[in-house]
Structures are given as C-alpha cells and as structure tokens.
Amino acid sequence: MQLLKDKHVLIVGATGSIGSRTALLLAGSGAKLFLAGRNTEKLQAVAASCKVSPERCFALDDSQPGSINELKESYFQQFPAIDILINAAGIGIIKSMDTLDETDFLNTLNANLVMPFLLMKAFLPAMKATKTGLIINIPGVLGKVPMAGAAAYCASKYGLVGMMQSIREEVKRTDIRITNLFLGGVDSAFWDTIDLKVQREKMLQADEAAKAIWFLCQQPDSGVVSEMVLQPFNHQAI
Length: 238
Known about the structure:
Blueprint: E1 8-12, H1 17-28, E2 32-37, H2 40-50, E3 57-59, H3 66-78, E4 84-87, H4 102-130, E5 132-137, H5 151-170, E6 175-183, E7 186-187, E8 204-205, H6 206-216, E9 227-230
Parallel strand pairs: 1-2, 1-4, 2-3, 4-5, 5-6, 6-9, 7-8
C-alpha cells in the first residue's frame, strides 16, 4: 500500500456526502488537501473538520467554465504539484423523456461531462510534467448499465467513461493512473430531489463509498485499479 502522508490531493465535490467523508479519511492519513465545492458554508465546515486552511478551499461555480481556471490558479498558489485528483462532483436529473427538457439535458452534461473535461485540461498537464499521478472519477453504475428515466444522466456518465478511457490511452507510457469507480445506489443527498420510490436503507452508505476511494488512493505505483464496482448486495446491476 502507498502511504498518503504529504501527498497533494485535490477533491472536487468536497461538500457532497461522499466527497466530505473522503476528505476526512485522507486528512486522517496525512494527505495535504485542497478542497473545492459548490456550497461555501458546507465547504468551510468540511475544511474545519479536516483542519484545512481557508486558502486551500475554493468555492466552485460549475455554471461558469472560467471557474475551473480560477481553481487551478488557487491550487497551484498553494501546492507545487498534484498527486491525486478526485472528482466527486456531479448532479443527478432522473426524468422520463416526456418530462426531460433541453435545459435539464444540457445542465447534466455540463456538470457531469464538460466540467470533468475542463478539470483534465487544467490539471492533466501538471501530471504529464512529472509523468505520475492518480485520477479518480465516479461514473456510478449508470455509466455502465442504463436505467429508465436516466437518459441525460447515463449520457453524461457514459461520456465520462469514454473520455477517461481515451485519455488513458494518451498517457499509457507514463505512470499516470486513471480509475473509474462504478458505485451502485449510495444513500446520499443525490436522492433528496429525485422523485423515485427507492429503498435508501438498502443502499451503500457514503462512508463505504469514501473508504473505497481511500483504498484506491493507496494502491502502489506498480499497478492500477482501472475500474472498481461497488454495489449494495440487494441492488446488484452488474
């Protein structure tokens, strides 16, 4: 297992259920964290719990493409390099084609596909310069298996998987590692605004998802976990 002490880690989506718990685990392992998230109040709370200074936090506005460049500038003012990039951000719009409109579709693509693309444009060059690094995205099982009512969400997550697989081919002669984490249903804030009858008590807990990310961050440089699938025992889709 690779030690995380003093590793430079960027967590995007640090204010979410999974991102915040991942931050706690990594901070406890001695990693140097930079946290980005949409909700400023939650971001400050997560930073305080992880003992991360305000200078190493960034309130991300994912409706503004330029926000990623501002994040990049803020990050490299604090850290000389990036060892691990964890993208735990995203949105979920689950609607049938009868009710899904163009705005829903484009907002989903922007948050779940365009913003990860901009993150790669911003931070991949620094990893290429050192020829090392770890990138973790969370497509979820809907990036592998479609679900009725998830046309926009599946489109964004399938696109994310394809993009990262292509980038993997570009960097395969370096030690840059890319992992896609396919999580099944996680009992998180994702479901708070989705009008579906789901059994949240049978879902994965956010702490379990965070432990999976923490585990992936400790894999040795000699190997890579290209994919991990973690699902509730009673909700297996793959």
